[in-house]
Amino acid sequence: MSTDRAQIIAEALDQFSAGLSVLDQDLRVVYTNAVARKVLELPDELFAAGPPNLADIIRFNSRRGEYGPGDVEAQVEARIALARQRVPHNFHRTRPDGTILEIRGMPTRDGGFITTYTDVTDRARAEALIRGQAKILAMIAMGAPLQSVLSDLLSLVDAQLQGIKSSILLLDGQRLRHGAAPSLPEAYCKLVDGIEIGPDVGSCGSAAYRKAPVFVMDIESDPLWSQFVELARPYGFRSCWSTQIVSVSGEVLGTFAMYSGTVRAPTQREFDLIEVATRIAGIAIDRQRAEDRIKYMATHDALTGVLSRSALAPRLDAALAAAEKNGRRISLVFVDLDNFKLVNDSLGHKAGDDLLRIIGARMRAAVTADEAIVRLGGDEFVLILDDSDDADRPTPQRVEALRLSIAQPVLLGGREFSATCSMGIASYPEDGRDAAALLANADAAMYRAKSTGRNSVRAYANGEEAESALVLKDDLGQALRRGQLGLVYQPLVEIGTGLVVGMEALLRWHHPQRGVIPPAEFIRLAEETGAIVEIGRWVLQESCRQAMQWQSHSAEPVRICVNVSPRQFKNPDLVDDVAQALMESGLPAGCLELELTENMLMHDVDDAIVLMEQLRDIGVNLSIDDFGTGYSNLSALRNFPVTRLKIDKSLLADLDSSGRATMRAVVALGHALRMSVVAEGVESADQLTFLQSIACDEGQGFHIARPVVAGEVAGLIGRNHARFTHRPDDALAS
Q: Concatenated DSSP letters for 505-567?
């Protein structure tokens, strides 16, 4: 080939975008174009004495770290051995400056090699970026932890650039918290964790505050970094470019930042990567926040912010497992607001919601992060408290302090209001070793607090009292099945005529060892344990059956009066139970009268009216028992579908001038509301004479007639009370 022609070919090859080198059969570099020398950074000195051999080129590249760490001669031998195989090859090599070469070699017919060198850095990084984005988006879709997603995202960004270290901070209120920074020193991440945002708080704090990018070219001189330059200096950071990360709705979620060791602005490629990183980070954080919200809503009460009923079982089970493992005590506190219904009735449901929010906040302030508050629904809450010896204060003191806190006045609808509560405490392990026992016992203690005056705290019985109560509770659970429960009946007499007009069914428990147990003792226990619901159902059935039997032997209809307990009244099956008892006995519904206590009705007036109307629709009569012992809403009383008021015996016991006036007023009130009035506890002739003088409709008490067994009732129906034969058995006294 002529010299001119070779020159033309060489000049043409110098215009190629790829580098080109030719090796002869002795592996000498006989030709390199200009691009190859530039890409490979081969100095002219290597070619000064003639074509260098491949070993010289390999030694040169190895000494400057082209192939990574390792023994130079070992690398020479390995690469020469590969070249002597005279096989085609194609591979990528990442050079010390981060550029990526695609190297293709083809053997020639004379035993040499032609090799091309193409800079594929941009293409390789673009492909890696696409693969990385797909992987990270898949992680987000699969619900990978946010920390892992953000760390992988920043590792991807850092791999795309030279000399850049990136970070993500998450906005928490007014502070930035560490999110991810896999290439930043851990010590630096700790220093900036928790920095409060502001208009001049470095790059990230300012970007989050301004909701706009902040690019600081020189950390040493920019006033935004005046407070933090000493933090950055030990790590060689000279510029920091920060961009806000936003949600779909535009809310700032955090910041993405790039740190560089040189004083400069970001390049276009860095701008592009900032856009990619902030967009993907926003998707990941947004998804995590949405997932957190869903989890929160599933386990928390939307109104008060405390745990919801669904969270009680797992939280209590976990607390019990931890207590058993660590030998600790926990206490369960059952809380029921005493007068919440009055707020809804007088101020409206919005005020009721406001009150519950305030109560919830007061409860949250009284517990630690490891304890729990659960809203069961309505105005009922459960607290799970640490009750170990090393707790800050004994649980009874804490609960009493919480009761006082709840009772502090609040302003609702422009009016001051105080909400009291009844609270019951049961502790692990002495009051129960499983969730069901603790809940039942805490509920029983709360019910005891409510039934003994409200606005108080009661602990579940302990010591000998607890053991006795436990035995009695177990016995009571078997009493109905063993036939130990029975009924006696006390006549109600029409005061004007002296005729027996009804019978009140009274429950008695004939214990095989203790004899007859007073109702005041075991009825309370039945209420606390919930056994009263089953017992009450039996009383209904037996009373209706017995009344129908009496009626079949008498020309007179028999009115049978049955007490309904608070727990029965709350039982959703009450209406069905009443209907079933009437149907099975055949007793006309008008012959059954259900006695409801005043306090029970006033606790939840709206619900009480709905239930009473359902009972009235069946055809049964309703009366208010123990009237005068609770607080009455006269407006509600007027709307109650009841036919009779039964005045509590405490009002009749003391007939001084004020007592007589009170009795007259109550009788007049009942008549004004078109109700019959019954006086309970008639113990003397003077009391009976007084009741006649104020036109009280009916009377009941020992002076009139003591309770009798079922077999003696038939002879009393329709007769004058003066002919009664009294049973002197104190065990049957009401």
A: EEEEEEETTTEEEPHHHHHHHHHHHTTHHHHHHHHHHHHHHHHHHHHHT-SS---EEEE--HH
In angstroms, rounded to a whole number, what is the distance separating the alpha carbons of residues 606 and 610?
6
Bridge partners of 177? 170
Instruction: Give ∠ CA 549-555-556 in degrees, rounded to 5.
Output: 85
Mind giving me the DSSP string for 446-500? HHHHHHTTSS-EEEPP-HHHHHHHHHHHHHHHHHTTTT-EEEEEEEEEETTT-BE
Please enumerate in sequence order all residues whose Cβ is within 8 A of that of 321, keeping only pairs 6 or more positions apart, or say none: none
Query: What one-character DSSP code corresponds to residue 339?
Result: S
- Strands 644-647, 621-627: pairing kind: parallel
Three-state helix/strand/coil letters over 595-636: EEEHHHHHHCHHHHHHHHHHHHHHCCEEEEEEECCCCCCHHH
CB 281 within 8 A of CB 168: yes
Strands (E), 26-112: 29-32, 89-94, 100-107
Q: Find the range with the poorest average confidence among 313-317, 527-531, 684-688.
A: 527-531
DSSP-derived 3-state class of residue 303: coil
Going from the C-alpha of 588 to that of each of 13, 19, 478, 548, 581, the distances in angstroms are: 115, 109, 32, 8, 11
**Hey, which of 287-296, 516-525, 563-572, 573-582 has the most confident mean pLDDT?**
573-582
The 100-107 sheet, strands edge to edge:
29-32, 19-23, 113-119, 100-107, 89-94
- State the chain's mean pLDDT as an integer: 85
Instruction: Using alpha carbons only, give the angle 104, 106, 107 rounded to the nearest 5 degrees.
Output: 150
DSSP code for 310:
G
Question: Residue 193, SS3?
Answer: coil
**Domains observed in the chain:** 3-119 (3.30.450.20), 125-297 (3.30.450.40), 307-460 (3.30.70.270), 480-641+706-732 (3.20.20.450)
What is the radius of gyration, based on Cα positions, of the chain?
A: 45
Question: Burial, 279: exposed, middle or buried (Cβ in 10 Å; 0-12, 13-18, 19+)?
Answer: middle
Give ∠ CA 672-673-677 in degrees, rounded to 5: 85
Nearest residue to 615 via CA among 587, 629, 635, 595: 595
Q: Helix, strand, or coil here: 242?
A: strand
Helix axes 121-141, 146-160, angle to 10 degrees: 170
Lowest mean pLDDT among 81-95, 207-221, 434-448: 81-95
- What are the residues whose beta carbons fall under 8 Å from the beta carbon of 720, sequence distance 6 or more? 497, 498, 499
Instruction: Describe the crossing of helices 435-451 and 312-326 by its angle, rounded to 10 degrees.
Output: 110
